[in-house]
Amino acid sequence: MSSENFLNQIISPWMRQEGPDSDIVMSTRIRFARNIDGVPFPTAFTKEDNNRIIQQFGSKFANQALSGIGNFELVKMDSLKPEEKQVLVEKHLISPNLAYQNELGAALISVNEEVSIMINEEDHLRIQCLYPGLQLKEALEVANNIDNWIENEITYAFHEKIGYLTSCPSNVGTGLRASIMLHLPGIVSTGQAERILQFIHKMGLVVRGVYGEGSQSTGNIFQISNQMTLGKSESAIIEDLERVVQQILLYERQTREASLENTRIQLEDNVFRSLGTLQNARKITSNEAAFCLSQVRVAIDLGVIKDIPRNIFNELIVAIQPGCLQRFAGKTLSPEERDVFRASLIRGRLKH
Amino acid sequence: MLCQFCQENQATVHIKKTINGSKQELILCENCAADQGHLNGFTDPFSFHQFVFGILGGENQHIQRPTVLECPTCHLTMQGFKETGKFGCQNCYRIFESQLPGILKNFQGGNYTHQGKDSNRREKVLKHQTDEHKNIAEIASKTGSVVGELARLKDELQTCIKQEKFEKAAELRDVIHEFEKRLKEANENV
Predict the structure, then answer these.
(1) What's the predicted TM-score (pTM) here?
(2) Is A234 an interface residue toward B (CB < 8 Å)?
(3) Which of A22, A234, A236, B181 is deepest in the core (most CB within 10 A)?
(4) Which residues pair with A36 in a beta bridge?
(5) Which tens digit of pLDDT belongs to each residue from A205-255?
(6) Which residue numbers of B have CB closer than 8 Å to A's CBs?
(7) What count of Cα atoms within 13 Å lies in the side-chain half-sphere of residue A162?
(8) What is the ipTM of this complex?
(9) C-alpha to C-alpha distance for A256 and A254, rounded to whole angstroms
């Protein structure tokens, strides 16, 4: 299969679209944590509880259409192969926890892959919406609609003072986690990223790598989200996050422009060397690929490279992960084999 | 003379106490006396609170360590929560209510009131609770929730004592007595 056809199949439709501030913001994610009234949380429930919830939830919502979203499909964790789960994790449709902790749980995933409802991860329900670019209000509105759609059928565990109850008190109240995935090569190149990220942390926000808690930042990609879920309304939470993100965008753009103005030859040299690596390498590690892709992406944003579409970066960052590569190869790969397939996938996509 | 408690070491400490009018004498070795918090006297807030708890706690004449609070629904204890950082069910939030401010401060930076969407659920939950408390006999039929509520009240009482809110503690003691009395009556009527 050609790289392009493969990517058409594997990449979620929303990842190919451009959203507001797509030059820096890769995606917006809104997540609600909810539990069903009267049933122990997944941290303490029985296998029977698990099966009953999936069955009830599946029969109510699977193959149902919600206006603006379309149909949902129920995917049970015990019916998936490990490599299939890995692809869902790499596409951010399920969490590593749901995929690998046990065989329990399921996910209701919309056909357009914008919405995923994880069942029996740490909480009974984790409603998640994914959007390209910076679209916090839009994503929150959609997540709210889905939440209301479910609440019409199911009574949630709710406390009169502290709101929606969750297994971990870090999610209690609104149950809302809003995350923005940012590509920040400019800020990283100034050597100030560490200081800025520490300050952001003091503002009550959390900074993480691409794949959530504890993951490393690769390819200058950072995920910023709210830490507190209680004591503020949903709209106040996303407004506070948006304010910080806007400031980061401003600073990132300034540093990008400055490097173009002051060190253009150096920048071009770095960028075209990276492009050369991507177009010619016969084997490449995911770290090196992420580094080169990040450089090429900034060059596209700055107009230094004009003939390569921008969304290639978003696509390939996901596609060069082990799970997706093994899908591309159609077999299980050793790390060395992955490097070869990764190089071949990237070469194929950049050839026009 | 040997220590009354360990029956091994020579007793060197003689303690006389009067709790709720009943006299108590203890003859202990230094180690046991220290273990039970007697040597620090009233300078150690822990033993002072134990002392007050002995009075306000009601039925127990002697000083005792508080029993471990456990959620009747999912059997989680505070120790269990501290290990995982996760509650087992929604009832945990009521059972461990007295510990919530500390927990929420760690996780949520000290904001304790939900300001977000509630789809009119706040009123519904409150009404549900008032209905539930209206008839004590009705609650008594749901043994689990009564035992849990009683445990929660006792835990709250202990917290009040620790925080030296003695008026509130005295009120709670009365509530607990009333609760136990009516629970006993309800059980006899069943």
Answers:
(1) 0.74
(2) yes
(3) A234
(4) A156
(5) 998 865 555 555 678 899 999 999 999 999 999 999 999 999 999 999 999
(6) 73-76, 84-90, 93, 100, 103-104, 106-119, 121-122, 125-126, 129
(7) 24
(8) 0.84
(9) 5
